[in-house]
Specification:
The structure is a homodimer of 361-residue chains.
Chain A lengths: L1 H8 L2 H22 L5 H7 L6 H14 L2 E2 L8 E2 L1 H11 L7 H8 L9 H16 L2 E6 L7 E8 L6 E8 L4 E7 L6 H15 L4 H14 L6 H13 L8 E5 L1 H5 L7 H12 L1 H13 L5 E4 L11 E10 L2 E11 L4 H24 L1
Antiparallel strand pairs in A: 1-2, 3-7, 3-10, 4-5, 5-6, 8-9, 9-10
Helix pairs in contact in A: 3-4, 7-14, 8-10, 9-10
Chain A binds a DNA duplex (30 and 30 nucleotides) through α4.
DNA sequence: TTTAGCACTCATTTTGCCAGAGTGCTAAAT
DNA sequence: ATTTAGCACTCTGGCAAAATGAGTGCTAAA
């Protein structure tokens, strides 16, 4: 109710403004120094336009609002997760990459890339380097991809071991080996090959099964029926079973160099967190669904208790308008949100483009 | 010279024996407890068959020989790298895996594996889990592999973008996209395809270039000449340029849980060491050359200064008798060499087998 | 409404101290 | 000739008391 009182008695606008200013100051200082910031420091930063005592009053307000807190009775203030959230949602101003950062990032473009893996690996290293935090890149391409081409290749003369090569619209190539229950004739194989390519071109992978089943129904009795049946079996054994999802993680040690990791316990904790990839995947996967610019998860906002001390800034990347993965930066909640958002956003954009180009080739 | 004196005057055999016994005791105790071991402790372990004072004398000998050392004036003894080396080369007895370990390891066999990556990932996780150290797996397959089959697939109607699928004798499949300088006719492509498969079957990759060049010379003037030329260009653009080498690293946090990492500095150091993959690769690559059972690198024996505190136990794995990679365990020099050698050896064997089987399918 | 002053709190650092583990040496015992 | 007991000495690690100092909350004055 301290707040309401204030609202009634004062020009709440300028008041609000000043509070924000001081809050931002605390936040920035804390992000820089990693030590709780006290009233005196703030006063100095504001060129003594206000005395420490006044600042203290305001700080008390901010604390009441839940934006900052004391680690202990007489330490400086530290932003709470709620505080960071407020900053991120309301106060934060869009920031731009420096020339340098931009240039560094752009080196993902240096193309002699042939392997998707290499590109993504590079991207994650760059991201970690520029952010000076840990970088995550999720690639989840194939699952939401579109069929482009398939090739069936006999592996050897015995004729029932088959190599299935599958190319998606994003330009990704995957292979599968299948063992047929019985040998297949060359002509039959050729037919199957042509059939699949005709039928499935442009189809999202998610619809392939349905489509083939429907066609099977239609062709019931005709001599194509068996062909479709074989096709379906094969596709099921290959493309549809592969969950193509891979996570890159780079620069853990950068996070561990942050001052909050002076105690070893924290270090272990983080290491465990990152070794268990599932929880991270969980988070990153969420972004595949929603198509926003960037997402920010702050400490205790995340389900995983172990994430309490960390924040995650993520952004998904796409080919055309099809999301194929997520890039993210993980660090202590005390991170430069504004800069990292810009960075992650940019990287997602570039990565999408580079992968698109590779697909085109 | 204490040593020579002893040699002259005593029954050196029983003397040597006792020294070894005590040294082994020190080593084992230190491996277990990670604290310097003193004369009293040893005496107790030997059921007081010798007094601490005697032990101290022997310890002094061992120290003079360079097998153990003091961290400071009045602490217990700790094995030196030279000491570990002596143990490993001379004293160590072959150890066997427990039923439990064996069973755990064997789960790499659980086959629903289709992807090489998955198998190796699994293997490295198992290795780390059972050893309770960090596990490394290098896969360097293709470079020393043998040609089995190639398939050229037109990617689309424009006819100058080609997908090259390459299958090696180990059963590894790799794809490359190439853009031809000019479109190629279907018939020509078909011919090229057949030609390559005929010519190169069974050839080690390292010889492909030479072989094709020689054939080109032979066919000079004939209408095959151009075909070979195209073939060579394509192979060069694809198989020969790919350096297929990948490193898995698992369980870093396990090493960090060792008591030697109470100081944070060590932790960072190790983390950096592991993030820089090149030095590790260097070491693991060496094993590809020599075909020994197991290799052990102890601390300062390794060039890399940062490795001073760590040991590495490695063993290469093969398809048939062709080495295709290396598995290894990394931990503090204070590690259970005997157990880990058994473990690494076993895992290398299993991994080779599993990958071979996969190739056969 | 802001500021100065003061008493108080609590984390951190410093210091000193002690116990414990272990050594090396010497002299006695076997 | 070896082994052992005894003793003086060294160094670590832990603990507690004391000093430090940054920062607060509250009150009263500006």
């Amino acid at each position: 109710m301290g707040i309401t009182r204030i609202h009634i008695k004062r020009n709440s606008d300028t008041f609000e403004l000043r509070r924000c200013q001081i809050f931002t100051e605390i936040l920035n200082l804390y992000i820089q120094t990693a030590t709780p910031v006290g009233s005196r420091t703030i006063a100095r930063r504001l060129r003594n336009s206000l005395s420490p005592a006044t600042i203290r009053n305001i700080m008390a307000d901010l604390e009441e609002m839940g934006y900052i807190e004391h680690p202990y009775t007489s330490a400086g203030r530290v932003p709470t997760d709620q505080g960071y959230r407020y900053y991120v949602n309301v106060l934060m101003q869009e920031s731009h990459l420096t020339k340098d950062e931009e240039e560094t990032i752009r080196t993902v473009y240096e193309r002699h890339w042939t392997e998707l893996e290499e590109i993504i690996g590079r991207a994650s290293r760059l991201l970690s380097e520029v952010s000076n935090q840990a970088a995550l890149v999720l690639f989840s391409g194939v699952s939401r991809d579109i069929f482009k081409r398939i090739a069936l290749i006999l592996l050897d003369s015995s004729s029932n071991r088959l190599l299935v090569v599958f190319v998606s619209a994003s330009g990704l190539i995957r292979n599968y080996k299948v063992e047929l229950p019985e040998p297949i004739e060359d002509i039959q194989l050729e037919r199957l090959n042509r059939l699949l390519n005709q039928e499935l071109e442009g189809l999202p992978l998610s619809q392939i099964e349905y489509h083939l089943k429907r066609r099977m129904m239609m062709e019931q009795g005709s001599l194509y029926y068996n062909l479709f049946k074989q096709a379906l079996a094969m596709i099921k054994a290959t493309i549809l079973t592969s969950k193509e999802e891979r996570l890159w993680l780079e620069g853990t040690s950068r996070v561990l160099e942050q001052p909050e990791f002076r105690e070893v316990a924290r270090t272990r904790e983080l290491l465990h967190l990152l070794e268990e990839k599932e929880p991270l995947l969980e988070l990153l996967r969420q972004d595949l669904e929603q198509d926003q610019r960037c997402r920010i998860y702050i400490g205790s906002e995340m389900e995983n208790k172990a994430m309490k001390w960390y924040s995650l800034v993520t952004c998904s990347y796409k080919i055309g308008n099809r999301v194929i993965g997520t890039v993210g930066i993980l660090g202590p909640t005390r991170m430069e949100y504004s800069r990292l958002v810009a960075l992650v956003d940019r990287m997602a954009g570039l990565l999408g483009k580079v992968i698109s180009q590779m697909g085109e080739l």
